[in-house]
Amino acid sequence: MKKPAYKIAMLGAGNVAWHLAPALEEAGHEIICVYSRNLENAEALAQNLKTARATDFTDFTDFPADLYIIAVKDSVLPELLREAVFPAGSLVAHTSGTQPLSVFETNKNIQGAVFYPLQTFSKNTPVSFRNIPFCLETAHKNAMVLLQKTAESLSEKVYQVNSEDRKILHLAAVFACNFTNHLFGISAEILQQNQLHFEMLQPLVEQTVQKAFAQNPFSVQTGPAIRHDENTIQTQLQFLQNNPGYQQIYELLTRSIQQKS
Description:
Blueprint: E1 7-11, H1 15-26, E2 30-35, H2 39-46, E3 53-55, E4 67-70, H3 77-83, E5 91-94, E6 111-117, E7 134-138, H4 141-152, E8 158-160, H5 163-193, H6 202-214, H7 224-227, H8 230-239, H9 244-260
Parallel strand pairs: 1-2, 1-4, 2-3, 4-5, 5-6, 7-8
Antiparallel strand pairs: 6-7
């Protein structure tokens, strides 16, 4: 059975939109327009699409679509919703992990929804949407059907998740992704400053991730903190003496690990 093809307007031209818009086209949907406050950004994304028109106007009545996807920063979303004009009854979904469905309450003439891909996006890093979880939410039954079909055309992992649970997911993702990536950055910096290669850590990191998802992560914790190896801990803190910020991170994580042991 052929997957449904929808007309979709993409509001935003940042990292999420940069990956999501082409993926939707590849899944058989039509991106009819790309909006950005910076027209050059909208044009750059539209040029990578088949028929999309770039615009920096927030009146979308000339772009009737089955679905309007808002992929902008959380801080920009409420302002954009105040300014935007949609055809009456339009289905409008944001891609935020933290903004509640209630952000649409001031727009009585539209159907608000959430179309949240649980993934980190960088423009120059390819992603495969097949395994990316999509978290959907809306108060409108027919709208959920369209959201579900759209998400399923991209991914094998589609969930209905309410606003409160989505906030919890996002918090957990900050620890698992954003904070972990920052720690990778610290590791890379320490190695590079001492003429060592960050790539040497890759097998260790990959094994750590595999174990974390195969078992309870706390149960497979290793390292000097879990062993209460004070000699190693003090030696490593001494090595970080010229970077008090990294010392604090080291001490905080060491205490947290030991409290869980």
